[in-house]
Amino acid sequence: MLTLVALGIFALVALVGGSLAVMLRDPIYAVLSLVKAMLGLAGIYFILGAEYIGAIQIIVYAGAVLVTFLFVVMLVNLMPADIPPLPRGLNLYGAIALAAAWMLVLTQALTAILDLPDPAEARGASPDQYLFGTLPSIGKVLFTAYAFPFELLSITLIVGLIGASVLVQKRSEP
Amino acid sequence: MRPEILYFSLTLAAALFSLGLLGLLLRRNLLLAFLCVELMLNAANLNFLAFSRYHNEPTGAVFVLFGICLAAVEAVIGLGLIVRTFRAHQDLGYTNLSALRW
Amino acid sequence: MVNQLLPLALTLPAVGAAILGIGALWAPSLRAQRFLIGSIATALVGSSFILFGIAFLQYQTPFYVEGWSWIATEAVQVPLRFQIDTLSLWMCLIVTGVGALIHLYSIGYMGEEEGAWRYFAFLNLFIFAMLVLVLADSLPLLFLGWEGVGACSYFLIGYWFQDSANAQAAQKAFIMNRIGDLGLLAGMIWLYAETGTFDIDQLKGYIYSGDVAVGVGLLFFLAATGKSAQIPLYTWLPDAMAGPTPVSALIHAATMVTAGVYLTARMDFLYNSAPEALGLMTGIGALTALLAALIATRQYDIKRILAYSTVSQLGFMFAAAGAGAYTAAIFHVFTHAFFKALLFLGSGSVIHAIGTQDIRQMGGLRSYMPLTGWTFWMGTLAIAGLPPLAGFFSKDEILHALYARGTGGEGAYLVYWVILLITAFLTAFYMGRLSWLVFEGKYRGEAAPHESPAVMTLPLLLLGIGSIGAGFVSLSPLFGSSWLREHWLSQSVKELSLPSLTHSAETFLIFLSVGAGIGGLGAAWWLFGRGGIEAEERLSASLGQLHHLLEAQLRVDALYERAFIQPYYVLADLAKDVWGVWVGRLLPQGLAQSLERLGKALVQPQVGSLPAYLTYLILGGLLFLIWTLSL
Q1: What pLDDT shows up at residue A78?
Q2: What angle do the packed helices C34-57 and C86-109 form, to 10 degrees?
């Protein structure tokens, strides 16, 4: 019960953060609201038992990625006045209807899965033995079955690094 | 794990995804639209983790890890492109970016 | 031993064609070595003849030379296999023997030609293709050789292709032959559908119902009319004289045009059960012989006279084959090869000497070129059927066969016999006219005639000896037994048995045929031997319209032009108008225009606005999701 209440709180934080990120006009506030949403998600990860992933979510997402967003907002000197207001009328309702349709379809798709029995419990595992999110279990999988994708990922990171520096570099105009 | 927790997580993920999508449709600024994409990515991550928990399998968690790394790369490249676009147009509204039309 | 040498005998001419053709293409400096090229070609065909000669002397039983698998599918299997039996070996001897002599002659005749390498390469290739034709043991292989000789004939008729008339003559020959080839192909397929095999030996084992035998027999005879220049497809042969004269001698007199006769003899088993096809064959043969002989009497081009003479003699052969006397036909092929090659080579020698083909520009040439003159006379006497020259024996055998069949109850053959007897008279007449106008009397031309070099007169002499002696391989029953028929060809060719004649009837026949020959020659002497060219002019004046009709070769070409070619053009124009406009222009244009319109319509949604694209993307993703989940 306590778990469900905690889940509900964190979910509320995530939803409110997300909604504000979508709607706020001030870009700084929007980014910070998204940080709030990320933190709420990290809390959900903790409750689900994935402490490591939750920590990574806070450090990488909330700490690094969104801070980079903030840097860019400041770099391009984005003011609230630069942001166009949200559309009104038909455009707004159309967008809401489309998003609602996605929501409907996604939940419909997911309910189909819920008819299945819990495979973990079918295997006889007790709730205390949920070890999927602990660092040793992730590390074991990461460095055995997914060692090659892991290495590829490091190459991707380097490519991203170089790509970003090349993109942002100021070139002398001809 | 009780199915209702999975159901809860999945519904939350769907809601966050749709929220991001709505933002994508409404925001007329490159940077803020990009912000919404990040939200959608996170919704996908939540799905991975919920199913990983449901099956008691670390693979899903590993994929979330990969997803976060790729999101970092994607953010860096995307932001780089945004900075360049800004330098070219002195503006981040994307409604008028149509130079590649036939 | 011989069995191993025979593949060599077959491939030597092909090797020659390859060496000369590819070698001269690859090394243009070789082309100037005309004497060397001619000698190589002659030596290869000559060795081939010697090898076949050895095979002939040591011949015991039919045997096969296996090459490799040619067509190998699940449904059809045709090996590359050659059959050496008495018939094919006999044809090989004619082809390579006469071929070698004509090669030798060509060294002299074509010595001045720039393209001699091309000429000799094709000549060698022709010998090879002809050997494939006669040695083939299955119908597709025979067809390969059949087409091969046709192609070589095309190349050699059009040898002087710079003159468009020659190129057109070559095309005419090629196209007329295609009509016939269609018959061969259709007959071949029909036979396969009936029996399931292409192998000639296996085909012999089947019993054919009358319809199949007549149908296939007529189709094969259509092929023969094309290749062997019979009515209705004969008109290409006189035009084929556009090629070099040795080519006319080899291909269009001695060997290729007899392929139809060979095919008939090869398919004896089929024709023996198709009396209707045989009757038609004799009729066509006799009619062709008569018409061609009539035309030949009124021509002035020396080669054209000989060409019509060839058509006429081929008619004799088919008449004999149609009477079921295949060996008589093959015998006439054999003797005809000698004297007709001799006559053509003699005419070539004359043309070589004075540079014209019009007999009105000749006369008295025997005193300038005695060797050519005497051998030409030898050929004339042989074709006229004077005993004991070659033509007498073979022609007598043909007339004998027709008469025997006619008196044996099939009256139509008696009519054909009479026609051929008249033709024999006409043959002697036009040949006598030719010889007297060309070689006797006074010289009427301007060029200075001279005797040809020894390399050309030697083949003339050898062929002259052949024309005298070749007939003795098959004596008529009155004088002894026929070695060719009874001891050689009977091993591989099954003839229809002829009703036997009484001794006095045979004597009567011989006197008639000799009488026809002597009568024709005498008539020719009476007119042209005494009167010369003036008699010729008087004769053509007195014949009036008939003369013009015959000189214009009965206007058959014009008839074909109006009956087939013009309607064809009309059809082609119609097709151009209907098909060309609709399929050629409107349909593609409409297709292109509608595609363009479609493209322009598809371009409309590409508004170039990112928000719009985002909406498309999201909408598309939604629809895709709905579709995959079949919600």
Answers
A1: 85
A2: 160
C600, C603, C604, C609, best to mutate vs chain B, most B CBs in 10 Å: C609
C610 touches chain A (CB under 8 A): no
Identify the residue among C600, C610, C617, C625 best suited for mutation to test binding to B, counting B beta carbons within 10 A and taking the highest: C610
For B23, other C-beta atoms within 10 Å of its C-beta total 27
Q: Measured between beta carbons, which residues in chain A are less than 8 angstroms from residue B46? A: 41, 44-45
More confident call, C554 vs C139 = C139
Q: Which of C528, C551, C574 is the last residue of a domain?
A: C551
Q: Which domains does chain A have, with CATH numbers?
A: 2-83+126-168 (1.20.120.1200)
Average pLDDT value for chain C: 90
- Chain C nearest C-alpha distance from B81 (Å): 15
Show residues of chain C in contact with A96, CB under 8 Å. Answer: none
- Is B102 a member of any domain? no
- Whether A77 and chain B come into contact, CB under 8 Å, resolves to no
Which chains have at least 3 CB atom pairs separated by less than 8 Å from chain A? B, C
Query: Residue B74: inside a domain, yes or no?
Result: yes
Looking at the structure of chain B, the number of domains it has is: 1
- Domain with C387, as residue range(s), is 2-551
Cis peptide before A174 (omega within 30 of 0): no
A157 touches chain B (CB under 8 A): yes
Whether residue B101 and residue C607 make contact (CB cut-off 8 A), yes or no, is yes
Q: What phi and psi, each to the nearest 5 degrees, are found at residue C80?
A: -85, 90
Q: How far is A30 from chain B (nearest CA, A)?
A: 8
Quote the tokens at residue A170: 């100021």
How confident is the model over C523-549, as pLDDT tens digits?
999 998 888 888 888 888 888 888 888
Residues in chain B closer than 8 A to A145 (CB atoms): 59
> CATH no. for residue B76?
1.10.287.3510
Task: Concatenate the DSSP letters of all residues of C510-549 into one string.
Answer: HHHHHHHHHHHHHHHIIIIIHHHHHHHHHHHHHHTHHHHH
CB within 8 Å: A3 and B5: yes
Is residue C353 a contact partner of residue C368, using CB atoms and an 8 Å limit?
yes
Tell me the range of A67-76, C474-483, C497-506 where mean pLDDT is highest: A67-76
Cα–Cα distance for residue pair C603/C584, rounded to 1 Å: 29
pLDDT at C75: 81
pLDDT tens, N- to C-terminus, chain B (102 residues): 566 788 888 889 999 999 999 999 888 888 999 999 999 999 999 989 888 887 778 888 899 999 999 999 999 999 999 988 888 888 888 877 777 765
Residues of C whose CB is below 8 A from B29:
none
Q: Is C410 helix (H, G, I), strand (E, B) or coil?
A: coil
